[in-house]
Design goal:
single chain; alpha/beta; Arc Repressor Mutant, subunit A; D-Maltodextrin-Binding Protein, domain 2
């Protein structure tokens, strides 16, 4: 990112203006990373405790950093750093709040930032390499998928245009053919899983869709470490003053929360701020780490990224779905090869709370891996008996017809 013009940052009403730019460069960015000189500087001062050390960390001169701080104090109309001689440099309350607010804003927008980077990368790849395959993926938010995108681009010339959205919206996009592949997740449950069945079963048909194994991951409660002794299980949230931050309706994690609430007999009114929502795992984690909320449901990797305590609750499978007619599409064939590779399994093992799927890259039998199609023994036997009776009736009718002839 190009540094902003330090000479013209304000509008006439005194508000600081915002201008976004992007650049093609050798250095790679990930996640919610965006370069901005003031926030890079504030983070360096906070971490180093010294303007001189912050300048050295950023590869800038002390004089330049000192001048930048003076300019930004003037632009915001209040000091960002306490600079008392003989004392450790530290951010002012405003500087701390500004740094956290900017990080939360970037984290909340991470799926859109990633999508923009991926779209630009696809444009360059499509123009420069005729061997490159392009694959559009609409998916429930997941921290492993950006790593899959990087790995697929580097190792298989497969560029994945990932758009993060809720599980239900992702499957809707697939059925409307707005994407080639959709990503969604369900817990590894026994029984009928009525919450998931009601929301997702109508969107997937065994004769029309195919499932591909992608990964497994652990979901649980994320909270700051000072609250760890108070929350050891989901039921501890009932009646607790700790403020909850939820996921948006239609997301797979919100379905999981609804399922858990039903399973434990909890009600939304029993949990403080239950209706407050964020749209990604990292946005929930950032909200908790900043102190805006106290506890939320998310993946372990997001909790550890923000230094939060994690209480594991459930393991879930992350699936990729495509239409049966597209299963042999060259991009999907290449994707399955990447997923089946040992390199993808190794990348998952590096991400906290993640593991390879039981059969990564394999086409799965939908009725075997989704909980709402698994039946208990007696019910299965009754179903098989019914099938046997139908076959017997058909055979009897055929024999009767033959004898009449």
């Amino acid at each position: 990112m190009k540094e902003p013009d330090d000479k013209a940052p304000r509008q006439r009403d005194g508000r600081v203006t915002i201008r976004l730019q992007y650049a093609f460069a050798d250095a790679e960015q990930r996640g919610a990373e965006l370069d901005n000189s003031v926030f890079l500087l504030l983070a360096a001062v906070r971490d180093a405790g010294s303007i001189a050390h912050a300048a050295a960390q950023l590869g800038l001169s002390y004089r330049h950093v000192w001048g930048q701080l003076r300019d930004w104090d003037a632009k915001f109309g209040t000091p960002l750093v306490d600079r008392l001689q003989g004392h450790r440099a530290r951010l002012t309350d405003f500087g701390e709040r500004l740094l956290w607010a900017e990080r939360r804003a970037r984290t909340r927008l991470q799926p859109h930032i990633d999508a923009l980077r991926a779209s630009l990368a696809c444009i360059v790849a499509e123009a420069s390499d005729t061997r490159t395959r392009l694959l559009s993926l609409h998916a429930s938010h997941d921290l492993a998928l950006p790593r899959l995108r990087e790995h697929a681009a580097q190792q298989a010339a497969l560029h994945m245009d990932i758009r993060f959205m809720g599980s239900i919206d992702s499957l809707d996009s697939l059925n409307a053919e707005r994407c080639l592949v959709a990503g969604f997740h369900v817990p590894a449950l026994r029984g009928s899983a009525p919450v998931f069945a009601k929301a997702i079963k109508p969107l997937l048909k065994p004769g029309r869709h195919k499932l591909i194994g992608c990964s497994r991951r652990t979901q649980g409660l994320m909270l700051r470490k000072e609250h760890a002794p108070r929350i050891r299980a989901l039921t501890d949230l009932a009646g607790s003053p700790l403020r909850f931050v939820n996921r948006q309706p239609g997301s797979g994690t919100r379905l999981l929360m609804d399922h858990l609430m039903q399973a434990y007999g909890l009600r939304a009114k029993d949990i403080a701020d239950y209706d407050r929502v964020e749209e990604t795992h990292v946005a929930v984690a950032a909200c908790i780490a900043s102190g805006a909320a106290d506890v939320g449901l998310g993946v372990e990797a997001a909790a550890l990224e923000f230094g939060l305590h994690f209480v594991p609750i459930v393991t879930e499978d992350y699936f990729l779905a495509c239409l049966q007619q597209n299963l042999e599409h060259p991009a999907i064939v290449r994707l399955r090869e990447v997923l089946a590779s040992p390199e993808w399994s190794a990348l998952l093992h590096e991400l906290p709370g993640y593991a390879p799927a039981a059969a990564p890259g394999a086409v799965l039998m939908m009725t075997a891996v989704l909980p709402w199609w698994r039946f208990s023994g007696p019910k299965r036997r009754r179903r098989q008996s019914a099938v046997t009776r139908v076959a017997s009736d058909r055979a009897t009718r055929k024999s009767t017809t033959s004898s009449n002839i």
